[in-house]
Amino acid sequence: MARHAGAAVLLLLPLLLSACSYFRGGNGEDELEAEPQTGIRYGVEIEGEGVDDEIRSTLLSASDANQATSRPPASELVLRRRAEADLPNIESGLRSLGYYEGTANYEVKTVRDDNQTAQGTVGELRDRVEDFFKGPPTILTYHVVPGPRYTLGSVKIVVTDPKNGFLAPTPEALKLEPGQPAAAQPVLDAHGELVSQAQRLGYAFAKAGKLDAVIAKDTKRMDVTLPVTTGPIVHMGEFTIVGADHVDQRFLRRRVLFRPGDRYHPDVMHKTRQSLIDTNLFSTVVVDQPDKLDASGRLPITYRVTERKPRSVAAGAGYATDEGPILSFSWEHRNFLGAGEKLESDLYLSPLRQELSTNFIKPDVDARKHNLLAGTSVKAEDTDAYDSKSIGAGVAIERPLWSDRVTGSLGVAYRLAKIKRKKEEEENFGLLSLPGTIKMDYSDNLLDPTTGWRLNFLAAPYTDTLDAGVIFLKTQVTGTTYLRLTDSAKYILALRANLGSIGGTSRNDIPADERFYAGGGGSIRGYGYQLAGPLDDENDPVGGRSLIELNGELRYRMSDTIGLVYFIDGGTIADSALPSLEERLFIGTGVGLRYITPIGPLRLDAGIPLDRRSDVDDIFQIYVSIGQAY
Predict the structure, then answer these.
(1) All structural domains of the chain
(2) How far apart are CA 602 and CA 13, in angstroms?
(3) Is 12 helix (H, G, I), strand (E, B) or coil?
(4) What average pLDDT is seen over the chain?
(5) Predicted TM-score (pTM) above 0.85
């Protein structure tokens, strides 16, 4: 029956994708954009003698035609008009790199005769898969002659009001040196950095003058003059927060990172704005910085905020062959007591697990970004490994460590549980633990990262208050990294490693629901839930004291809304306290489809076990959920 359900999900997927496309339209224009289109499918190439990777990448970024490949023109004539209108962009891109005599023309060539985009979401997906393997059927080629590359000549920095004491940096300090390529962006960057340096020294009113660039064709040089006007050094005045009618002002004022009399610094202004945004209480935060000082000679600052609605509800649905249908519901209040307190309640329902949890966060306890965490949960599980019913509560303090991207927490938790292993007597546990965590997040996106990395560390000593002889230490380290294989985010290699260890007692003394298991949609895909590990005589999982999981995904973004994934997962469970590769290694592989939505990717994965046990493992597993696998 599970396999029939998996097939049903595959049959329903086109309908689901079409529905998502329909609901993306917020107005008439958006809905028209979402309609499937017919036309010439094409790709863009840059060719020519002397064209290197820098030129090619810059010109492809500058090309409107290249950015519009997802909107096929109706005919070759329309494509040629698009290419003709794009020539000034190509030549402008050459000039931005210092090729001031560069020229370009274009050619349209059909390499296959299947250049009509198919109707509908499924047809569009088929076309994109075909284009991935064969290349687009029509190629628009820009033939480029770069010509000589101009170099930078003299660089002058002019402070128009030197009486205010600003000492301008040297051109070399701004990364401008005579003889380097006369590319536009480094010059613009240097002019901006000149103003930024003045502002960081307290010149709040510093601004750039008109940049003067003189191009000499006889010498192939560009001479530039960078003017700046600084104004006086500025000190901060009083600050006010307008629009926060339902939020405690004392709580908000602790979020302001400067005090009257401090010297102006733009980074402090930005961080204060971000600090207010981080409360999640406001939809907008605007800094109102006047262009003149007040009567006391200082700079008053006003933060104008727009409050968000404090409450929100959410619902989610998923499916896994090994777990069945999954439903989740949540309710959240982000200003429960008026000072940014968050109260959240979550309900998770599946045939294997039902859980109701409530979490409370009190921000800025004693100090800014020191948060009080408290939570309760009621959970029931009915898996092949065990039946468990439990109720628990915990409290912790969380704070940033050496960076805002690194947080640590330390707390205490207690859980009462009734756990029954298959064909064994029910056992009662009263687990007292002291969990500590360190979380690092240097990724670029919470829901769909394309670069950076994350590392989570958990350590928790446990004691069973109902059996004084049981004491154990549970630790787990999970790391993920995201690598862009091209300059864009079109190809992403995502890697994950998860290691776990329980020491201090034997496996049989550890509650069954605290042991490590592997297998399933969040673990080793292709194997059933908890089945990628040792089994008893009845082929039920027994868990272990250590865990190794290694996962890899190659993610390909076909368009703004469609992505493909190839994955391979591996791992093992051991009875030893330290992870070991000497145990049987379970490896699963498969492919996935992603439909990108504003709340994260809609995920469909199909996995197969590479070393299938005929009496245990199904031929394949299907997983449908929201969000990337990791």
Answers:
(1) 1-33 (no CATH), 36-145 (no CATH), 151-229 (3.10.20.310), 236-307 (3.10.20.310), 311-626 (2.40.160.50)
(2) 11
(3) helix
(4) 88
(5) no
